């Protein structure tokens, strides 16, 4: 998920880990790090529950007339299909019922749909398939911890709404120390396919060999859960994910994992929209509307993600710097 083609997040309450089900992770769940909810074909309307069940329900918004007026008539008639890879807590993951998508992005999406006055239909999809699905018309919106990058902007538009970084996590007790990209040389790292972390680790491997150092062994998996399992089983020295996601993975593992080094490479998260769908402007307006009503901040607070929040003036279209 960072951009997922990189999924990026922020430190402290880092957002965007692998799929994690509600409730404390048992030893068995830790081995798969969120096995329940790994179905990439399920879909449902997000609820206001959280993984712990203790956070207050996120605020909701009614339709904002001036925002709803911007939505194309074709979309008003059918609603939107919103693709999310629900294996990246706390941004998007599966609730304890085994099918409902919950999380920061799920709550934001629900509020955006309400502001636009349209039917909002979240669908669980593998991260690497979301942008191709937007291009083919299978999905109308991609809301899944997408790092806004120049490369992705060539294909879709992004409405930026958050700031995140990347971070490493290790198996607790590991003697390995990874505090920067350069310290990856000679190490193995587990990443989710299509993420920025995959691209960054691969680029770093080239830099390592160019400097006469050992290459980075990049293990790529279709879901964040599988990447987590590779680290817990010792098949990879480290896991690499958006910072808030890495922090969440560590917290929910109850001692199985630990963070390694600070977060870095901070980038904007963006909501992906097909360039020709006419939805970029209404999504932008809806995000500004829920910010003005205080709903955006309430949702960030609910998921421990205040550090990644941005002011309304920073909500832009295609704001990637690299």
Please describe what this structure looks like.
The protein has 322 residues and is α/β, with parallel strands linked by helices. The chain has two domains: 27-165 and 266-309, Periplasmic binding protein-like II (D-Maltodextrin-Binding Protein, domain 2, 3-Layer(aba) Sandwich), CATH 3.40.190.10; 166-265, D-Maltodextrin-Binding Protein, domain 2. The protein has eleven helices and eleven strands. It has helices at 27-32, 65-68, 73-78, 104-116, 127-136, 150-153, 196-210, 224-232, 243-252, 280-292, 295-302; strands at residues 80-84, 87-88, 92-94, 101-102, 120-124, 141-147, 156-171, 188-192, 217-221, 238-242, 257-274. The longest helix has 15 residues, at 196-210. It starts with 26 loop residues before the first helix and ends in a 20-residue tail after the last helix.
């Amino acid at each position: 998920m960072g951009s997922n083609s990189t999924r990026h997040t922020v430190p402290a309450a880092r957002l965007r880990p692998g799929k994690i089900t509600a409730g404390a992770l048992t030893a068995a769940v830790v081995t798969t790090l969120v096995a329940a909810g790994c179905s990439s074909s399920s879909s449902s309307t997000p609820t206001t529950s959280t993984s712990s069940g203790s956070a207050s329900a996120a605020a909701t918004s009614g339709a904002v007339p001036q925002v709803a007026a911007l939505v194309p008539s074709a979309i008003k008639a059918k609603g939107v299909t919103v693709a999310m890879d629900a294996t990246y807590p706390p941004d998007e993951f599966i609730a304890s019922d085994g099918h409902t998508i919950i999380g920061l992005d799920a709550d934001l999406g629900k509020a955006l749909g309400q502001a636009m006055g349209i039917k909002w239909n979240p669908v669980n999809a593998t991260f690497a398939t979301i942008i191709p699905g937007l291009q083919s018309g299978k999905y109308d919106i991609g809301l899944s911890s997408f790092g806004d990058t120049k490369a992705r902007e060539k294909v879709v538009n992004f409405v930026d709404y958050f700031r995140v970084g990347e971070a490493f996590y290790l198996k607790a007790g590991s003697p390995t120390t990874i505090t920067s990209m350069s310290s990856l040389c000679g190490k193995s790292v587990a990443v989710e396919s299509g993420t920025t972390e995959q691209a960054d680790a691969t680029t770093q491997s080239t830099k390592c060999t160019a400097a006469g150092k050992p290459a980075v062994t990049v293990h790529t998996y279709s879901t964040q859960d599988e990447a987590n399992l590779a680290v817990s089983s010792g098949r990879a020295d480290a896991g690499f994910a958006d910072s808030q996601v890495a922090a969440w993975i560590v917290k929910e593992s109850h001692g199985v994992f630990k963070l390694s080094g600070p977060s870095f490479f901070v980038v904007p998260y963006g909501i992906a929209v097909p360039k020709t769908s006419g939805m970029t402007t209404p999504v932008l307006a809806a995000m500004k509307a829920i910010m003005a009503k205080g709903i955006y901040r309430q949702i960030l607070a609910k998921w421990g993600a205040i550090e990644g929040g941005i002011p309304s003036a920073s909500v832009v279209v295609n704001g990637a710097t690299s």
